[in-house]
Design goal:
5-stranded mixed beta sheet, 3 domains, Beta-Lactamase, elongated, Heat Shock Protein 90, 4-stranded antiparallel beta sheet, 12 helices, alpha+beta, Helix Hairpins
């Protein structure tokens, strides 16, 4: 801690000169402790920081001799001449704390008297400082190593997922192909199939296989998308298309997989309908948002999709009446593999969807925000610059 001492004085004991040079107004608000002496080594003033540091009352110190104060509070044998000649002294108080007092002369145009300004620094041993520095360096290296390890693990996970996704695509495609062939064979043998006793059970199991394979395919597509994003291998192919028709088509497709009495309500504002965006990326963005809205919303609920075009902006929103996102977790939902606690009861999910959505939005130089209340619902808002002017 630094404490500044002002020695032999420009001020007299009634503080008139001290006021004249306008130091008194700022004396007590300085961050450093300061003390002022006149030319007879009489203490004129001490600011509050100085008094607090040494647990001294201003009334008990003002008017006393400088060296009486030093001898009472510090182990100091050097006299005034030695201090002025060497410009610093080493002090040690009764509690064993060491201070280094440094000073300099300050000239004034108001008077021919001198002010000596000294700074007292709380000294720590060289060994202590070196030890603390070494600890800080060790901590820095430890954190750096941990960050490198975490980065390597993340890269390994991404590479593994990418490789696994590619390897699984072929067998999954084979399973779907076989399912389609089975359905065709059954249609070709309608008479025998109609008389089959366990017909309903077989159809049920075939549907389960079909759904499971499609779900797994969707998951693998997300893994592949994540890998491509990290490698910077997502090409942006923007072209002109009718936004309203594109969203209407997706809404119609997702309406077929809604829960009982779930309805997707779509509306569009503005006479403009044409936009210039990457249609593939936008389709994937909407697929993720609509899938989440359906999955996390109850039966007998509505999902609202709205688009609007102005001269400068393209706005898209998806609003549901679902479980919402807990406030404490809202700053984490775009993290890779992160799933909010209230979403863990739903078996399906990788925690990648919203991460990919935000990356795709950013690739098209857009912005995504959301508002959410737990148990009330969530609204995602996406904004792009309208280049169709």
């Amino acid at each position: 801690m630094a404490i500044t001492l002002l020695t032999p004085g420009i001020m007299n004991t009634n503080n008139k000169l001290f006021d004249a040079i306008k130091l008194k107004d700022v004396f007590d608000v300085l961050a450093q402790g300061m003390i002022v002496f006149d030319e007879n080594d009489i203490i004129i003033a001490a600011n509050q920081i100085f008094c607090d540091t040494f647990s001294i009352n201003k009334k008990d110190i003002e008017g006393r001799l400088l060296y009486d104060f030093l001898n009472k509070n510090f182990y100091a044998s050097k006299n005034k001449d030695v201090i002025l000649k060497n410009q610093y002294i080493e002090l040690e108080n009764k509690e064993g704390k060491k201070f280094r007092a440094e000073h300099r002369r300050l000239n004034s145009e108001i008077t021919d008297k001198s002010i000596y300004i000294a700074t007292i620094i709380n000294q720590k041993s060289k060994g202590t400082l070196e030890s603390e520095l070494q600890k800080q360096l060790d901590l820095k290296h430890s954190l750096k190593d941990k960050l490198n390890e975490e980065s390597e693990l993340s890269d390994m996970k991404s590479r593994f997922l990418s490789i696994a996704s590619h390897e699984f695509r072929t067998p999954l495609a084979g399973i779907l192909s076989s399912l389609n062939l089975i359905n065709r064979y059954l249609e070709a043998e309608q008479k025998a199939w109609f008389e089959f006793k366990n017909k309903e059970k077989i159809i049920n199991h075939l549907q389960k296989i079909d759904e499971s394979v499609k779900n797994l395919t969707t998951i693998l597509q997300k893994f592949l998308a994540l890998g491509n994003i990290e490698k910077g291998e997502i090409p942006i192919k923007q072209f002109k298309f009718d936004l309203r028709k594109a969203i209407e088509k997706q809404v119609s497709q997702f309406q077929e997989i809604c829960k009982p009495n779930q309805h997707i309500m779509y509306s569009h504002t503005g006479r403009r309908v044409n936009v210039t965006l990457d249609k593939y990326l936008l389709k994937n963005i909407m697929n993720n948002l609509l899938s989440n809205a359906i999955k996390f919303s109850p039966d007998h609920s509505n999902i609202y999709v709205h688009t609007s075009l102005s001269e400068n902006e393209i706005n898209i929103s998806v609003k549901d009446q679902g479980i919402g996102i807990p406030r404490a977790e809202q700053n984490k939902i775009y993290r890779r593999f992160y799933r909010a606690k209230n979403a863990l009861t739903y078996e399906e999910g990788t925690g990648l969807g919203l991460n990919i959505v935000r990356k795709y939005v950013e690739l098209m130089k857009g912005k995504i925000t959301f508002e959410s209340d737990e148990n009330k619902g969530t609204t995602f808002n996406i904004t792009f610059t309208n280049e169709m002017k």
